[in-house]
Amino acid sequence: MKKVLQTFVDRRYLFAVLAMMCYGQIAVAQNSRYTLKGVITDARNKEPLPGAVVKLTGTNQGTSTDINGAYNLVLDVNEGSYPILISYTGYKSITRTVLLNQSSTTLNVELSEDALSLDEVVVTGTSVATSKKQLGNAISTVSAKELEGGAATSIDQALAGKVSGAQISQNSGNPAGGISVRLRGNSTISGSSDPLYIVDGVIVNNSSSELLDLGGYTQNRLVDINPADIDRIEIIKGAAGAAIYGSRASNGVVQIFTKKGKSGKPVVSFSTQFRVNELRKKLETNEYPFRFTNTTASDLSQVPVTRYDLQDLVFKTAYGSESNISVSGGTDKTQYYVSGGFLGNQGIIKNTDFKRATTRLRLDQRFNDKIKLSMGASYSFSGSAEIPNGGISSAYGALTGFIFGNNFINPYPNAASGVYPSLAPTGLLRTNPLEAVNRFDFNQQTSRFIGDIQLNIEPISNLSINYTLGFDNSTQLATAYIPIGNTTPTNNSGFARKGDRLNLLLNNDVNVAYRAKLGSQIESTTSVGATAQTERVNLNTITGTQLSPVSQAASSGASITTSDIKSTINILGFYAQQTFGFRSKIYLTGAIRNDVSSSFGEANRWQLYPKVSGTYILSEEGFWKNSSLASAIPSLKLRASYGQSGNLTAIGAYDRFSNYGSVSLGGLPGVVSPTQYGNPDIKPERQTEKEIGLDASFLKNRLGLEISFYDKAVEDLLLPVTLRPSSGYSTQFQNIGNMTNKGFEILLRGVPVQSSNFKWNSTLIFSKVKNRVTDIPGGVVTFPGGFGQVAAVNGYALGAFYATAFARDASGNLILTATGFPQTEKVGRTTAGQPTGSNKPQVIGDPNPEWTGSFTNEFSIGKNFSLRMQWDASYGNDVFNFTRRVGDRDIYGGLKGYEKELRGEVPKGTSAAVFSIMENWIEDGSYLKFRELAATYNLKLKFLNNNPLRVTVSGRNLASIDKYKGWDPETNAAGQSTAVRGFDFVEVPIPRTIALGLNYTF
């Protein structure tokens, strides 16, 4: 593999030298310099449009408008008439022909909003800007304006409800809580289903590494990127769109573009925000003033008790603030953007917080009309104070202690000794939640640098050569300390852990594109390119138990375990793409990508991924334009696509090998056989997707409709297959199993009311996907992240709840025991009709929603006031309420459900009888959530030179309409797990956030 990489590198340098030599041989005509200037405004309210792009069509000569909508574009061209393209996100692009025969020419343009944004320019992986109308697959764009005002602290959090075909859910309410993004369903079982993230051409790390056991919660590394630096985000959902990215793109691609400087005087923007985070909903707890003296079913005697509200001891009203400042500007040749920001946000669990400091620099330098260099650098440093929840893997933690604790025991420490009492029942130790909050010391911090260098050369007209070097390096450090003499079940003698992870991603991309006119009616765009990528991970941990009473270091433990893991993955990729356009109404695209990855054996390293797509803009036909159809439906585009892409996340860098472990025998080194048997013949999972759709506008472009239907099939799933004991191994990765995702998505955008003083924008998103897993070996594969109650089952959706169910007769009635209690379904029946034998697990629920949607409305009143609100919906998904399962049990009994037994409303012993019947704890997780609300007013004050001071009051997760008995149906104790979803076991609930913000630009 190293030889392949070195060959590629050598050829890349040779290619660069040849390109520069050719460039030096080209005769360049002596051009004149002309200045084009003007102002770009909104056609409705005549307000300036800062950031609008003014560009000479077919070249890289362009500029952007400043804060006043003004621009100044210097062009190095010969005298003559030239087409000038003016574009702005969310507005209909305009091309104007300008005669350049004077030193200065003025061009003022008014842009009208476009509900469909078909003229919007997007980047699809080849570094070639393309209008959406040419694409045969769906691409969603989210602007910086849509990300603002929602009180979100991370990019993926802010995207929730704004992308059709995407299910974006927050798994934890921790201040750096993990987010899961699924584009058109799951695309793998063993690996990650999160999309590929690219920031300014840099492939970035968004892993959810778990250096500490915090109960399932892990951070996404997108939390390191400041949303205030984002200009726009483009989401490529289909395989045809993602095929150009090859073996890393089966889950879709999210392209993030950061803000850049614009020519003109320096523009300073400052914003600050103060926020309040609070628990939106408390669990109903047991307040009955008596308890049973024992668990004997026939003994109904009770004794009086005092109940304590343990939630009040763990949760709090939290506060946070965020400040950002940026300076941008430049000349026609040089533009710059520099920013800095700080976020400090407390968590609603006591003694938790997340802090992030960021800085970013972007420099664009045009040397002449043929060479442009762009450089970007960002650095972030984040730190978080954590309180573990216990949950999935460990028994220590605050919320675990809350749900397992008896709330009739005084939780406060002994006044004399300071020792905390155990609240758990005898024989089942769990941490006192108050002790976890006050004595545990868990921390994480991350230092991260992301940089890129991009060189664009246009040696001749219509030929562009783009080179991108991307670099993402992060160091994550985590420490944990539990002092000796605590109430944890296994670490009473003390616990300390330190872990660090170094993650490096490097990508080198070369893209060459040539545009040409073939006669008067056919336009051609040819693109070829190559990429070389490297990902390296170094992970080290040390854990110490039985600590010295005077040390918090893991190395001071009497029992020490260490781990040292290193991995490297190298990827090479080559592609070619051809697009033909016929009379600006029919576009055909074909592409092929060839990838090689070091993760797989030599026989299956090279993988080929094809793509084909077509677009027919029916409304450009003469018969359409000249009929009444044009007034009813001004724009109608039909599209179809087919493509394949791969997935590398299902296995690690060396999982194809039998990885022997080291062992010391009698002081001599040795090796021990692994449990997993290697397989050199495994290959990447492959996804094939077919998509058809249409884009249409109505009512003079005030109503836009996008509809997409897709059929996505995933083959060669990588799964651990159980081997015969005689093999000497337990499992082996094999390409076996298939998965399908079939669905459709609708985006409806409209402007119901529009006048010079009032405007109402409305967006409705509806997405539906049906997932099915087939050809699973043995029919069922269970996952540990849900205590073995979650599985991939043939014929069902991935992550189905597969566990014990109520025993029922043929009519569906419960079969009760002789004492009148429900019982678990078994594999057989006695002659009396009673269940017998071992438990018979079955599919008892599905965490995947039948559909998701959002409804967003934005009102602009006058020139100074705006109101935006967003509702998100999820329907048909189940949640496994493991929290209620524990809290309603008699030996714990902290939740309201157990009161019925104490009051005599149900027989004593009912809670124990249903405890092991998992079907009883499956609940409807459907919800309608008031996700965002933002009201903004522009104050114009004399001492601020009448520049608007924008005042915003916003809220997030304000309310939820649901029937769920837990804190929040939007949760997952298994974090960003692909397979385990909707599993609720005392995960921190998502807080309600209220924020007040100020923004001033001058």
Shape: globular
Helix content: under 10%
Quote the average pLDDT: 90
Secondary-structure-based class equals mainly beta
What can be said about the biggest beta sheet? 22 strands, antiparallel, barrel
How many DSSP helices?
Answer: 12
Poorly predicted spans: 1-30
How does this structure look, described?
- This protein is mainly β and 1002 residues long.
- The chain is 8% helix and 49% strand.
- The chain contains 12 helices and 55 strands.
- The strands form 12 sheets. The chain has a 22-stranded antiparallel β-barrel.
- Strand 9 and strand 10 (129-131) form a beta hairpin.
- Helix 6 packs antiparallel against helix 7.
- The longest helix is centred in the N-terminal third of the chain and has 24 residues, at 2-25.
- The protein starts with a helix and ends with a strand.
List the keywords.
single chain; mainly beta; 22-stranded antiparallel barrel; five-stranded mixed β-sheet; 12 helices; disordered N terminus
Tell me briefly what this model is.
The protein is mainly beta. 8% of the residues lie in helices and 49% in strands.
Give the arrangement of secondary structure elements.
Elements lengths: L1 H24 L6 E11 L10 E4 L5 E3 L5 E8 L2 E8 L6 E7 L3 E3 L2 E3 L9 E3 L5 E3 L7 E5 H4 L7 H4 L7 E5 L8 E5 L12 E4 L2 E2 L26 E7 L2 H4 L10 E6 L5 E15 L11 E3 L9 E3 L5 H5 L3 E13 L3 E13 L6 E14 L4 E16 L11 H7 L28 H7 L1 E17 L5 E20 L12 E24 L3 E24 L13 E24 L3 E12 L8 E12 L4 H4 L3 H4 L2 E13 L13 E5 L2 E5 L3 E2 L7 E14 L4 E13 L2 E5 L8 E5 L2 E17 L3 E17 L5 E4 L6 E4 L6 E4 L22 E4 L5 E5 L2 E4 L5 E11 L3 E11 L2 E4 H6 L11 H5 L6 H6 L6 E3 L2 E14 L7 E15 L20 E2 L7 E10 L1
Parallel strand pairs: 1-7, 1-8, 14-17, 35-39, 50-54
Antiparallel strand pairs: 1-4, 2-3, 2-5, 5-6, 9-10, 11-16, 12-13, 14-15, 16-17, 18-21, 18-55, 19-20, 21-22, 22-23, 23-24, 24-25, 25-26, 26-27, 27-28, 28-29, 29-30, 30-31, 31-32, 32-36, 33-34, 36-37, 37-40, 38-39, 40-41, 41-48, 42-43, 43-44, 44-47, 45-46, 48-49, 49-52, 50-51, 52-53, 53-55
Helix pairs in contact: 6-7
